[in-house]
Amino acid sequence: MGARPEAIITGTGVMKRFALIVGLWISLQCLPLACLWDRDTPREEAIGMPEVVAVLTGRFERNPPKYYEMRLARIELQLRNDPIDLAAYDDAGVACDRLGMSDEAIAWMVRKRLELNKRDPSHPEIREQLYRYHANLGTFMVHRWIRQGADRMSIDELKSACDEIVKALEINPNAHFGREKYQLQAMRWMIDPPQIDSFQPLPNLLGWSFGDIYGESTEPEEAAEAVRGLAGLVVLGNAWESVDIFHALNIALQRNSVGFSRGRDGGRNSLAYFAWLRCNELVDSGRGSLLPGAPTGKSLKELLPQPGFVKGEILLDPAFKRLRVEAEEWHQARVAFLSRRLEEGLHPDTHSDFWEGFQDTPALELPSVSLPEAYDKWQERRLMLVRCVIVGVPVLLVGLGIGIWISRSKHAKRSSP
Questions:
Q1: Residues 6+ apart with CB under 8 A from 318
Q2: Full-model pTM
Q3: CA distance 248 to 11
């Protein structure tokens, strides 16, 4: 006996309603995500901060050990003949610090202090040299503390380092784009660390709550200053492999407005997302936070707040990977050229033509397609699929039902006497 048409119609109606519910559910999943997009391209967000893009992707100058070994050997000989060259003591100390020789770096500052004691501290040039002395000494001391395992039983060493940075800031509070201010903030954060809550984002050295990034408590100008200072710690310090510094950059970049009207949900979210990716890159390589009791690996990554992006893994992850590969290739080419010339006995300090023949390549640009446009294209493809499901499934079911009904009707006719 054939199927009744009303049964087929009823079944089709049910399937239509089901397909409509599925389509509505899929479309609702898109709505809460779309409002999270910022409205500017990564390139626009980087206006006025090209050095930050270099910091986030690793396209800044980093020299091999031989570069500092040759500089140190030259300066040691120079200071034997001319011990009053105060700037040379800084070069020697920094060279030792870059080579991981913290005790020797500090010893150079002790020697510089003996020379400074012979000079008039009120003279502008000597004041500048005093600033450099305190800034370098404090930096060398904190680096030594970290290299020796950041032992909290030796926290007094870190406190002494803080005292030196305070003295440097009293002499020159605005040097290095405010780097020392944020260096001091980071050091005090390590001396008196906040408690880690496994249900909250990892505390950042700026002390800004992730949930209040878009609140009124932090002015965009303050956030911009923090970005510059933190970037300086990467380029001029040893923070390229610091999870804590890039975590703080993520927070500061989200709070920093681009400089034109964008509403309260402004910020440099594309760059913040890059900082977050760098954090994850560091954690994957085995790096961790200096906060006592901080987890490692996957557990640490779960405490690093991701900037509010829809499908960032589709739109920004490839751009970051491309920029990181380009930066690493540039770095390796630069180091290879540098190493060859150093082996020839040449050095940038003493040979003005050192870089002749080096084929420097321009940095790759940030993505030029605006995020909303890219998101709209992705959303359009997704909605097209949803429409196909909404329209296609009922049509398919109706066609299948009619086909079954016709087949059964023919079968019933053949079977009838």
A1: none
A2: 0.75
A3: 58
